[in-house]
Amino acid sequence: MDVLQLFVSGLANGCVYGLIALGFVLIYKATEAVNFAQGDFMMLGAFITLGLTNDQFWGLPFWLSVPIAIAAMGLFGYLIEMIVLRRMFGQSQVAIVILTIAMGFVLRFAAGLIWGNEPIALESPIAGKDVRFGGLVLGLDEIVVIAVTVISTILLYFFFNLTKLGVAMQAASQNQLAAYYMGIPVKRVHSLIWAVAGMVAAVAGILFASKGSIDPSIGLLGIKAFAAAVIGGFGSLPGALLGGIIVGLIEPFASYYIAAGYSQIMPYLLLFLILVFRPHGILAQIHRKKV
Amino acid sequence: MMLQQAINPASAVAETVLSIRNLESYYGPIMAIRGVSLEVRQGQIVTVLGANGAGKTTLLKTISGVMNPEKGEIWYSGRNIAGEEPDRVVKAGIVHVPEGREVFPLLTVEENLRMGSFVRTDKAGIKADEEMVYGYFPILQERRRQAAGTLSGGQQQMLAIARGLMARPKLMLLDEPSLGLSPLLVKEIFTIIRRLNREQGVTMMLVEQNAKVALEVADYGYVMELGRIVMADTSARLLASKDVQEFYLGVQGETQRGQKRWKQKKTWR
User: Fold this and answer.
1) How far apart are CA B97 and CA B169, in angstroms?
2) What does the domain layout of chain A look like in residue ranges?
3) What is the mean pLDDT of residues B4-27?
4) Under an 8 Å CB criterion, which residues of A touch B?
């Protein structure tokens, strides 16, 4: 029973990591930039929801706050790309990396100014309730996290494979020049990818906040999610989710079976091993051009 | 320009589709196009010949809006499209089939074709054009669920042309369709190019290093050297010209220019 409960809580954590990692990979695949503020996007999404719904702030109904927060983060991602990232076109990767890291700091401090640096709990209807299956006690929040991740994944799958815009996003990420030739508005597609990444981050943030209280430094979770994305194979969307789930599962099991001092390093040890033995990640997506 | 119009046989009947005037374009710090003027007339296949680095690809990229010109005008259906965004150029009816295929490798053949018609909204027309394209390239229909990256080089070239057709262009810019293909495949592709021109009425601007094949299908040809047009004539006359024969068709000649070049090489050694 213990093992199963550990598994479910690890899976739920992993889903959150996976969703953040998905944001990393989406942006990387489409624009070849790594958004190190992805974790802070997640934090911002969580705090916007909290700001809208908690009684000490606006006190809107939870189910109204969620779509507003997701839409707001979509708009935020779109504008960040359009106003900031597009000006970086042609700059080196390093410049973009530093820019996004700096953006993360700014968001963290801005969130601290608006909502304070003390941990706050999101007033979510799914927090702190239990579901019993026979002798098994599972948190409702954990089950909802897993279910929402599955639904989001299916929605994203259909969006990227069955809609014209989704396929165009894939096309633009596979061959940007050819996308220009076909009349795909590549710049707008990049903005939209950032919008999608922002919305996914908001979903991850709301899910994370439903599992416990949050403060502006939860954005640093992005580093763990980045490791997850690398483990899964940077550039593969299923790989990002898989990597997230693996990292999520390793944590509770490591702390259960291994001494406390060592359990913390397990995700990074795995990252190290993956980088040594399978540098392109578990689900590597490599293709060569034929000439 | 007056001289060209006099010797261009189609000029009396067909209207001008594309008219480029004094175009200058930079490739990085290098001036790749140094004042090019040329005309493409309705229903023609016009070829632009030239060696590596003559500026042919830059010329096409400037027309399709991927690169911006420094100076000059590109007149197409009554307006100057110089410097416009690529999606507007595609919407206006000019589609660029790039050098080296440039398919979307992980998308299926079908999805690649669907991206070709990205700017269009007429569902019925897109469906009909898909059938039309499969008619010209039956192999693509066979492979339509296969990832484009797994196709052979020749099939990828066919896909690139087919994808371009899906935009229903009035003018197609073809960049080196013969690149890296076997002579047999080159023949097949050029037969289809000519058929598309005759049967679908697509005006073509064809950039090639393989001058012989290009001049055989083209009505009119321009020769580019170091960013300038140095010769312009009907294909038949270009094929017969001594200079073109020597420099682009590999026919041994005794002209002075050839000897001069040889000597320069010798002294340098």
Assistant:
1) 11
2) 2-218
3) 73
4) 164, 167-168, 170-171, 174-175, 177-185, 285, 287-291
Q: For residue range B57-68, list pLDDT tens digits in order.
A: 999 999 999 999
User: B46 forms bridges with which residues in the sheet?
Assistant: B205, B220
Mutation for testing the A interface, residue in B62, B103, B111, B118 having most A CBs under 10 Å: B118
Look at residue B207 and tell me if it is in a domain: yes
Domain presence at residue B149: no
Residue labelled with tokens 């492979």: B143
Residue B105 belongs to a domain = no
Residues of A in contact with B180 (CB under 8 A): 291
Q: Which domain holds residue B173?
A: 2-93+169-268
A241-284 tens-digit pLDDT: 999 999 999 988 988 888 877 888 888 899 999 999 888 888 87
Asked whether residue B108 is domain-assigned, the answer is: no
Q: Phi/psi of residue B169, each to 5°?
A: -80, 150
Q: Which residues fall within 8 angstroms of residue A243, CB to CB, at 6 or more apart?
A: A17, A18, A21, A227, A228, A229, A230, A231, A232, A233, A281, A282
Tokens of B239: 């094929």
Q: Is B64 on the interface with A (CB under 8 A)?
A: yes
Cα separation, B159 vs B139, in Å, equals: 10
Provide the CATH number for the domain around residue B177. 3.40.50.300
- Closest by Cβ to A168, choosing from B66, B100, B118: B118
Alpha-carbon span A62 to A115, nearest angstrom:
18
Q: What is the pLDDT of residue B260?
A: 47
Confidence tier at B250 by pLDDT (50, 70, 90):
confident
Nearest residue in A to B168, CA atom: A182
Number of Cβ within 10 Å of residue A76's Cβ equals: 21
Q: Distance between CA A221 and CA A40 in Å, rounded?
A: 8
pLDDT average per 10 residues of sequence, chain A (291 residues): 85 94 92 91 96 91 95 97 90 90 95 93 84 81 93 93 93 92 93 96 95 91 92 87 93 86 85 89 61 39
Nearest to A178 among B91, B103, B111 (CB): B103
Residue environment code for A191-220, b if the CB has 16+ CB neighbours within 10 A, otherwise e: bbbbbbbbbbbbbbbbbbbbbeebbbebbe
Q: Which positions ≥6 away from A73 have C-beta within 8 Å?
A: A41, A44, A45, A48, A198, A199, A201, A202, A205
* Residue corresponding to tokens 């007033």: A123
What's the pLDDT at A267?
Answer: 87
How many other CB atoms sit within 10 Å of the CB of residue B258? 15
pLDDT value at residue B163: 96
Beta bridge partners of B20: B38, B74
What total number of domains does chain B contain?
Answer: 1
What order of strands is seen across the sheet that includes strand B228-234?
A: B94-97, B171-175, B203-208, B45-49, B220-225, B228-234
CA distances from B51 to A171, B54, B223, B260 (A): 31, 6, 9, 19
Spell A253-286 as b/e; 16+ CB within 10 A means b: ebbeeeeeeebeebbeebbeebeeeeebbbbebe
Chain B residues in contact with A171 by the CB 8 A cut-off are 104, 107, 111-112, 115
What's residue A50's pLDDT? 94
